Protein backbone atom coordinates (compact mmCIF):
# COMPACT_ATOMS: atom_id res chain seq x y z
CA UNK A 1 0.00 0.00 0.00
CA UNK A 2 1.41 3.34 -1.06
CA UNK A 3 -0.07 6.55 0.37
CA UNK A 4 1.22 9.96 -0.76
CA UNK A 5 0.42 13.32 0.83
CA UNK A 6 1.44 16.34 -1.18
CA UNK A 7 1.06 20.10 -1.25
CA UNK A 8 2.93 23.37 -0.73
CA UNK A 9 4.78 24.36 2.43
CA UNK A 10 2.66 25.17 5.48
CA UNK A 11 -0.14 22.86 4.29
CA UNK A 12 0.30 20.42 7.16
CA UNK A 13 2.01 17.56 5.29
CA UNK A 14 4.50 16.69 8.04
CA UNK A 15 1.78 17.06 10.66
CA UNK A 16 -0.35 14.61 8.66
CA UNK A 17 2.58 12.20 8.50
CA UNK A 18 3.31 12.45 12.23
CA UNK A 19 -0.39 12.04 13.11
CA UNK A 20 -0.47 8.91 10.97
CA UNK A 21 2.67 7.56 12.69
CA UNK A 22 1.30 8.34 16.15
CA UNK A 23 -1.63 5.96 15.54
CA UNK A 24 0.64 3.03 14.65
CA UNK A 25 1.65 0.48 17.28
CA UNK A 26 5.06 1.19 18.79
CA UNK A 27 7.89 -0.65 17.09
CA UNK A 28 6.01 -1.28 13.84
CA UNK A 29 7.21 1.70 11.84
CA UNK A 30 10.25 3.75 10.90
CA UNK A 31 10.23 7.38 9.86
CA UNK A 32 12.80 8.68 7.39
CA UNK A 33 13.77 12.11 6.16
CA UNK A 34 16.41 13.22 3.64
CA UNK A 35 19.91 13.58 5.05
CA UNK A 36 20.11 17.13 3.68
CA UNK A 37 17.21 18.48 5.72
CA UNK A 38 18.57 19.43 9.13
CA UNK A 39 16.56 22.64 9.43
CA UNK A 40 15.13 21.70 12.80
CA UNK A 41 16.92 18.52 13.86
CA UNK A 42 19.24 15.74 12.68
CA UNK A 43 17.42 12.85 14.29
CA UNK A 44 13.85 14.05 14.48
CA UNK A 45 11.16 14.84 11.97
CA UNK A 46 9.81 18.23 13.06
CA UNK A 47 6.81 20.22 11.83
CA UNK A 48 6.92 23.99 11.35
CA UNK A 49 4.99 24.32 14.61
CA UNK A 50 7.32 22.08 16.59
CA UNK A 51 5.69 18.62 16.74
CA UNK A 52 8.24 15.86 16.29
CA UNK A 53 9.03 12.14 16.23
CA UNK A 54 12.41 10.38 16.03
CA UNK A 55 13.57 9.84 12.45
CA UNK A 56 16.36 8.19 10.50
CA UNK A 57 18.27 9.90 7.73
CA UNK A 58 17.76 8.69 4.18
CA UNK A 59 20.63 9.45 1.84
CA UNK A 60 19.40 11.39 -1.20
CA UNK A 61 22.25 10.11 -3.38
CA UNK A 62 21.69 6.46 -2.46
CA UNK A 63 18.42 5.98 -0.57
CA UNK A 64 18.40 2.68 1.34
CA UNK A 65 15.99 1.85 4.14
CA UNK A 66 18.03 0.67 7.10
CA UNK A 67 16.74 -1.11 10.20
CA UNK A 68 13.70 -2.57 8.44
CA UNK A 69 13.08 -5.95 10.07
CA UNK A 70 9.96 -8.11 9.89
CA UNK A 71 8.32 -6.19 12.74
CA UNK A 72 8.46 -2.97 10.74
CA UNK A 73 5.26 -2.84 8.69
CA UNK A 74 5.13 0.85 7.79
CA UNK A 75 7.81 3.11 6.35
CA UNK A 76 7.14 6.83 6.48
CA UNK A 77 9.18 9.29 4.41
CA UNK A 78 9.12 13.07 4.62
CA UNK A 79 10.29 15.52 1.91
CA UNK A 80 9.93 13.19 -1.09
CA UNK A 81 10.77 16.22 -3.23
CA UNK A 82 14.46 15.95 -2.31
CA UNK A 83 14.77 12.51 -3.88
CA UNK A 84 15.38 11.64 -7.52
CA UNK A 85 12.52 9.41 -8.64
CA UNK A 86 14.87 7.00 -10.43
CA UNK A 87 16.67 6.37 -7.15
CA UNK A 88 13.74 6.35 -4.74
CA UNK A 89 10.97 4.53 -6.64
CA UNK A 90 12.92 1.24 -7.07
CA UNK A 91 13.65 0.99 -3.33
CA UNK A 92 10.03 1.81 -2.52
CA UNK A 93 8.81 -0.84 -4.96
CA UNK A 94 11.05 -3.39 -3.28
CA UNK A 95 9.40 -2.67 0.09
CA UNK A 96 5.90 -2.73 -1.45
CA UNK A 97 6.64 -6.22 -2.77
CA UNK A 98 7.48 -7.20 0.83
CA UNK A 99 3.93 -6.00 1.73
CA UNK A 100 5.12 -2.97 3.68
CA UNK A 101 2.97 0.15 3.78
CA UNK A 102 4.77 3.23 2.53
CA UNK A 103 3.47 6.64 3.55
CA UNK A 104 5.27 9.59 1.96
CA UNK A 105 4.90 13.37 2.03
CA UNK A 106 6.42 16.04 -0.16
CA UNK A 107 6.17 19.24 -2.12
CA UNK A 108 4.59 18.84 -5.54
CA UNK A 109 6.32 21.91 -6.97
CA UNK A 110 9.43 23.96 -6.33
CA UNK A 111 9.35 27.75 -5.92
CA UNK A 112 9.22 28.16 -9.71
CA UNK A 113 6.15 25.90 -10.02
CA UNK A 114 8.28 23.13 -11.57
CA UNK A 115 7.42 19.55 -10.47
CA UNK A 116 9.82 18.68 -7.65
CA UNK A 117 11.60 15.34 -7.18
CA UNK A 118 9.69 12.12 -6.54
CA UNK A 119 6.43 13.53 -5.18
CA UNK A 120 4.28 13.68 -8.33
CA UNK A 121 5.63 10.44 -9.88
CA UNK A 122 4.87 8.63 -6.61
CA UNK A 123 1.42 10.24 -6.27
CA UNK A 124 0.59 8.91 -9.75
CA UNK A 125 1.28 5.30 -8.75
CA UNK A 126 -0.08 5.59 -5.19
CA UNK A 127 -3.05 3.59 -3.89
CA UNK A 128 -4.13 6.78 -2.15
CA UNK A 129 -3.03 10.29 -3.06
CA UNK A 130 -4.01 13.22 -0.88
CA UNK A 131 -3.32 16.81 -1.94
CA UNK A 132 -3.27 19.37 0.85
CA UNK A 133 -3.40 23.12 0.32
CA UNK A 134 -2.29 26.18 2.19
CA UNK A 135 -3.72 29.70 2.09
CA UNK A 136 -2.60 32.42 -0.35
CA UNK A 137 -0.69 35.16 1.48
CA UNK A 138 -2.23 37.84 -0.74
CA UNK A 139 -5.89 36.95 -1.34
CA UNK A 140 -6.56 34.14 1.13
CA UNK A 141 -7.46 31.73 -1.67
CA UNK A 142 -6.44 28.09 -1.95
CA UNK A 143 -2.64 27.94 -2.25
CA UNK A 144 -1.04 25.19 -4.29
CA UNK A 145 2.33 26.92 -4.75
CA UNK A 146 5.20 28.37 -2.79
CA UNK A 147 7.06 31.55 -3.60
CA UNK A 148 10.38 32.80 -2.34
CA UNK A 149 10.50 35.92 -0.22
CA UNK A 150 14.26 36.32 -0.45
CA UNK A 151 16.47 36.27 -3.51
CA UNK A 152 18.34 32.99 -3.97
CA UNK A 153 18.52 31.07 -7.24
CA UNK A 154 19.47 27.64 -5.87
CA UNK A 155 16.65 25.20 -6.39
CA UNK A 156 17.28 23.67 -2.99
CA UNK A 157 17.34 26.37 -0.40
CA UNK A 158 16.09 25.31 2.98
CA UNK A 159 14.05 27.81 4.86
CA UNK A 160 10.87 28.38 6.78
CA UNK A 161 8.36 31.20 7.02
CA UNK A 162 11.08 33.86 6.72
CA UNK A 163 12.08 32.59 3.27
CA UNK A 164 8.90 31.15 1.78
CA UNK A 165 5.26 32.00 1.47
CA UNK A 166 2.29 30.28 -0.17
CA UNK A 167 0.27 31.48 -3.09
CA UNK A 168 -2.73 30.69 -5.28
CA UNK A 169 -2.29 30.40 -9.07
CA UNK A 170 -3.49 33.96 -9.69
CA UNK A 171 -1.30 35.83 -7.21
CA UNK A 172 1.89 33.83 -7.76
CA UNK A 173 3.46 36.04 -10.47
CA UNK A 174 3.16 39.10 -8.33
CA UNK A 175 4.27 37.49 -5.07
CA UNK A 176 7.24 35.64 -6.56
CA UNK A 177 8.67 38.76 -8.21
CA UNK A 178 8.62 40.89 -5.10
ZN1 LIG B 1 -4.09 34.60 -4.24
Describe the structure.
The longest helix has 13 residues, at 85-97. The mean pLDDT is 91. The chain has a single domain (2-132), classed as P-loop containing nucleotide triphosphate hydrolases (Rossmann fold). The protein is built from 4 helices and 12 strands. A 6-stranded parallel β-sheet has the order 5-2-6-7-1-8, with helices on both faces. The chain has a two-stranded antiparallel sheet with strand order 3-4. 20% of the residues lie in helices and 27% in strands. The protein has helices spanning 13-23, 85-97, 119-125, 172-176, and strands spanning 2-7, 29-34, 44-46, 52-54, 56-58, 74-77, 101-107, 128-131, 134-135, 142-143, 145-148, 164-167. A hairpin with a 6-residue loop joins strand 9 and strand 10. By secondary structure, it is α/β, with parallel strands linked by helices. It binds zinc ion (ZN).
| Overall morphology | elongated
CATH class: Alpha Beta
Q: Could you give me the name of the CATH homologous superfamily?
A: P-loop containing nucleotide triphosphate hydrolases
Whole-number radius of gyration?
A: 16 Å
Instruction: Give the CATH architecture.
Output: 3-Layer(aba) Sandwich
Query: Biggest sheet: strands, sense, closure?
Result: 6 strands, parallel
Amino acid sequence: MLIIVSGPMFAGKTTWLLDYASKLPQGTYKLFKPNIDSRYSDDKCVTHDGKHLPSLNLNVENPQFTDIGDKIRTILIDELNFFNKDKLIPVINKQLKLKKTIVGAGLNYDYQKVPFGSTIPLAKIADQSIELFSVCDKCGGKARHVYRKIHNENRIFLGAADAYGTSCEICWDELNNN
